[in-house]
Design goal:
The complex is a heterodimer of chains A (452) and B (488). Chain A is of the alpha/beta class and 452 residues long. Chain A is built from twelve helices and 15 strands. Chain A is 35% helix and 14% strand. Chain B has three domains: 53 residues, no CATH class; 259 residues, Type I PLP-dependent aspartate aminotransferase-like (Major domain) (Aspartate Aminotransferase, domain 2), CATH 3.40.640; 125 residues, Alpha-Beta Complex (Aspartate Aminotransferase, domain 1). In chain B, 37% of the residues lie in helices and 11% in strands. The longest helix of chain B has 39 residues. The chains are: A alpha/beta (452), B alpha/beta (488).
Chain lengths: 452, 488
């Protein structure tokens, strides 16, 4: 029996210890009309070898196309050591560190992660992670509404240049609590959110302003001005950042006069593979005065009864297993394994390694855009400086171009028209450090063929 | 020792980053970082050694019996991991075109279909990323259903007092008020109290069956009738699905919406606290409201359904499509079990729990619900020993660690004093259960003889009992140079 160790003799011994005749007798409290009949829609069990064949066939079918989509999930080289250690059984098959003494490995990893991510974002406190970048933003918005005592409106100012899925998810998570997201348009041709665009909202009541860096188009925002505007209008500043970009860019804690109050985003670029969108993890950091409004698990360093340092889950009075309906959030897990991978990744890379990866990704995307826009009928759309993504437009329907490139095993980019009707025909492209000069040429050559 | 304390300026894993620092002068200086983040500067070997050693400070299923009640800590088959981590699956971008994703989409579609069949539900969405997000999706669908009917008066969600804390927290996040329903002395929902609580204000009830008390709610059909009669819907918290997998289907019990913890019942790893996966299943009337995206099959092609296909959907709950890698692991597990294997999960999980219950009773432990069958888990209470000898549930738990067993869940559910919630799962062999019983017996004897032995525990682990009060008072949440441990 797959994964069940019982021999016939075991079953007999156990039943007689219980005082039952058959295993079925153990279900005698369940009304007989509720008992399941058969499970005809489920295939019969397959051996590990058979399932291996199926999975290899399906994986091979999808292949390994040359990928130029970023749009919130980024392909970076991951050192082999990262996932070999992460999937050690002691990390992989452990659970939430409720028994701290038997979980010092996991707890110390999270403490080290909190140390690294707070330093990258320039803030004081971090939790042990949220589900993904979008869920981290949703929770940051809820935090801001709880924490901002000067605001009564439950309104949040959100740039349209923020990832459309982040806006959707946040709306879906917070709308039933009477919280409203008010969208601010971006500048054309800049591609950024100028502080002047906020002028019409000056003096109104907002709990927070969301500030992406870079924004969804890859464009860099004037974060200092936006942060100061938020504070001048009694709103908290929530940074949504790519942690890889923070190897180069000013950390949110240093934005404007007093820094952003919270920072969140997708942790995936730091050592987590694309893997169809998950599991990733969302990071969430804040100034110390907001830590009691933070949702999720938090690890603290303390001492044991002999005075030896050790780690525990702390500030648990915020959480659902104690506060129930009055908890800061219903979230009771973190994305522990992905955080473990990220912590190992950051340790191996160091600040210097991260900076090289970020810089190479920036330079590669610039090179790619140069090569593509040298082709007739292709132009770059936005004028402001970008991190490692850019928007290009073709002189013909983008769907045909994308399909033509997919036929040549190239994933060309993300079509923006669906969520930005005014950008119909535009494509968001990204070339990280994983792309060689040959890869960039291969994209350009294939595009030339497709545009023919 | 922290990784930071092994740092040496200028050291790094140089095989792992681009050899050159590329030109970034196009980024305005005012937007740039002026000092480097405090990340470790160590060699690859130092990092490998450090994190390998840290892993060895953990208890895990792969190294210890882990009878943590309500968490279903069963064996996570290694094939699930290696097949989910095939390079093509790892390489796939979440927004890759459907034409280059048919293999992956086929796995997701098949998993949706298998989960429908084993739960008796009519539709499945795989996107929720944990049990609590599955709950959120479920309650949000209940809300969307009533709203779509113009039924705005339904402001309350009913939750039994034995429920997981996530249930009331979720109901509040979805904008409902929570009304608690008491449990009777047999561990069943108090039907008189339920009758008094339901009405036109009832949006729905959230139930776990078997309940967190480790017993099956025998009158579930009656509860379903009562709640449906007043127009409310039934939500099934799938935390304990392992107990009845293949034996009873939530859809047949009358539930309108359920979430499944694939990291429990479908054996995906717990990963030190996540990622999980909280796929949801729904009855016919909630199908239009399921969270997107969902995989559809059209002829021999698969594609994602989005808001354009499902305009009444509660929408997207994750930036992408849920915890895809977890779902692939669950798919491999489900295929290896097949229909017979799924029946056996519920059967052998129940056999192991009832055997352990019988043996612990013989060993002198009291049961919280002595007249009831165990499901896949059961509750022992040391209330009597606490009074007579001062032996608390914490003492038993900490001493178990010394003997190489992970502790059961303690002090949950909140209704039972000094309780240990014990769930052996179907993957443990009889010898391991016997060893656990002998150890529990020994701990009891130690406590009776000299309570200090238990109060001192654990003594064999990397640290002794930790000062949680200090941790919460003197917050030390991140390492910074020149800082003393625990003295922030």
């Amino acid at each position: 029996m797959p994964f069940i160790p019982h021999t016939q003799a075991d079953v007999q011994d156990m039943l007689s210890a219980i005082g039952a005749q058959r295993i079925d007798d153990l279900f005698d409290e369940i009304p007989s009309e509720l008992r399941a009949k058969g499970l005809d829609g489920i295939p019969v069990g397959a051996s590990e070898m058979e399932v291996t064949r199926i999975m290899h066939a399906r994986a091979t079918r999808d292949g390994m196309p040359l990928n130029f989509i970023g749009a919130g999930a980024y392909e970076h080289h991951i050192p082999a050591a990262v996932w070999q250690i992460t999937t050690r059984g002691e990390f992989y098959s452990a659970y939430t560190p409720y028994q701290a003494e038997a979980s010092q490995g996991t707890l110390q990893v999270v403490y080290e992660y909190q140390s690294m991510i707070t330093s990258l974002t320039g803030l004081d406190a971090s939790n042990a992670s949220m589900y993904d970048g979008a869920s981290a933003l949703s929770e940051a918005v809820l935090m801001a509404v709880r924490a901002n005592r000067k605001s009564k409106s439950g309104r949040i100012l959100v740039p349209r240049a923020l990832h459309p899925f982040y806006r959707q998810v946040t709306h879906n998570i917070v709308k039933n609590q009477g919280i409203e997201l008010v969208e601010v348009d971006y500048d054309r041709p800049g591609g950024h959110t100028p502080v002047e665009a906020l002028a019409e909202y000056a003096g109104q009541d907002f709990a927070a302003v969301v500030i992406p860096q870079p924004n969804f188009f890859g464009v860099l925002e004037d974060v200092d001005q936006l942060t100061d505007w938020a504070h001048a209008n009694n709103a908290l500043a929530i940074a949504v950042v790519n942690p890889m970009a923070l190897a180069l860019l000013k950390p949110p804690g240093e934005w404007g006069e007093t820094g952003a109050d919270m920072a969140c985003g997708e942790g995936q670029p730091l050592g987590v593979p694309l893997s169809s969108g998950g599991p990733y993890y969302g990071f969430l950091t804040c100034k110390m005065e907001l830590v009691r409004q933070m949702p999720g698990r938090i690890v603290g360093r303390t001492l044991d009864i002999e005075g030896k340092p050790g780690f525990v889950l702390t500030l648990q009075a915020r959480e659902q297993h104690i506060r129930r309906s009055k908890a800061t959030s219903n979230i009771c897990t973190n994305q522990g394994l992905a955080v473990t991978a990220s912590t190992i990744y950051m340790s191996i890379m160091g600040a210097d390694g991260l900076e090289r990866v970020a810089a190479a990704s920036h330079a590669n995307t610039r090179k790619l855009v140069d090569k593509l826009t040298a082709i007739d009928g292709v132009e770059a759309l936005f004028s402001r400086p970008a991190f490692h993504e850019s928007v290009i437009r073709f002189d013909r329907p983008v769907a045909d171009v994308v399909r033509g490139l997919a036929d040549r095993n190239i994933v060309a980019g993300y079509e923006l028209g669906r969520y930005y009707p005014e950008l119909d025909g535009a494509l968001l492209v990204c070339a990280t450090e994983t792309k060689t000069e040959g890869d960039l040429d291969s994209y350009a050559d294939s595009l030339r063929q497709v545009l023919g | 020792m922290l990784i930071f304390e092994q740092s040496s300026p200028g050291r790094r894993g140089s095989a792992q980053a681009p050899a050159e620092l590329a030109d970034v002068s196009a980024i305005p200086a005012g937007l740039r970082r002026t000092s480097r983040a405090l990340l470790p500067e160590v060699s690859e070997l130092q990092a490998v050694r450090h994190y390998t050693r840290l892993s060895q400070k953990n208890f895990s299923i792969d190294t210890q019996f882990y009878p943590l009640g309500s968490c279903t800590m069963k064996y996570n088959p290694r094939a699930c991991n290696s097949l989910a981590m095939l390079p093509e699956f790892l390489h796939r971008h979440p927004l890759a075109p459907d034409s280059l994703s048919q293999g992956y989409l086929a796995c997701m579609y098949d998993l949706q279909e298998m989960l429908k069949e084993v739960t008796g539900m009519k539709g499945v969405s795989l996107t929720p990323m944990a049990g609590a997000q599955g709950e959120f999706a479920g309650v949000a669908m209940i809300r969307a259903y009533h709203d779509a009917r113009g039924d705005k008066a339904r402001t309350e969600i009913l939750v039994p007092d034995a429920a997981h804390g996530t249930n009331p927290a979720t109901a509040v996040m979805c904008g409902f008020e929570v009304r608690e329903i008491p449990t009777n002395d047999q561990g069943d929902v108090d039907l008189e109290a339920l009758e008094a609580a339901i009405g036109p204000q009832t949006a729905g009830i959230m139930l776990t069956n078997p309940s967190t008390l480790g017993v099956f709610e025998r009158r579930i059909k009656k509860i379903a009738e009562m709640v449906h009669a007043v127009g409310g819907l039934l939500y099934y918290d799938g935390a304990n699905l392992n107990a009845i997998l293949g034996k009873v289907r939530p859809g047949d019990m009358g539930f309108d919406v359920i979430h499944m913890n694939l990291h429990k019942t479908f054996s995906t790893p717990h990963g030190g606290g996540g990622p999980g996966s909280g796929a949801v299943g729904v009855s016919e009337r909630l199908k239009p409201f399921m969270p997107i995206p969902i995989v559809a099959r059209e002829g021999d092609k698969y594609r994602w359904l989005t808001e354009q296909d499902m305009p009444q959907s509660i929408g997207r709950l994750s930036a992408w499509m849920g915890n895809a890698g977890v779902l692939l692991r669950a798919y491999v597990y489900a295929r290896m079990l097949g229909r017979d294997g799924m029946h056996r999960v519920g059967e052998y999980a129940t056999l192991n729990a009832n055997y352990l219950l019988a043996e612990l009773k013989k060993a002198g432990f009291d049961l919280a619900y002595p007249g009831r069958r165990a499901t896949h888990e059961f509750i022992v209470t040391v209330k009597r020993q606490a009074k007579e000898f001062g032996i608390t549930a914490t003492d038993v738990a900490k001493r178990l660690l010394d003997y190489g067993y992970h502790a059961p869940t303690i002090y949950f559910p909140l209704l039972v004093p000094e309780c240990l919630l014990i769930e052996p799962t179907e993957t443990e062999a009889k010898e391991d259960l016997d060893g656990f019983v002998r150890t529990m017996k020994k701990i009891l004897a130690e406590g009776v003889e000299n309570i200090q032995t238990l109060k001192d525990a654990p003594v064999t682990l990397p640290v002794r009992r930790l000062d949680e009060v200090r941790a919460a008072k003197k917050l030390d949440l991140a390492w910074r140079p020149e800082q003393e441990a625990g003295a922030a």
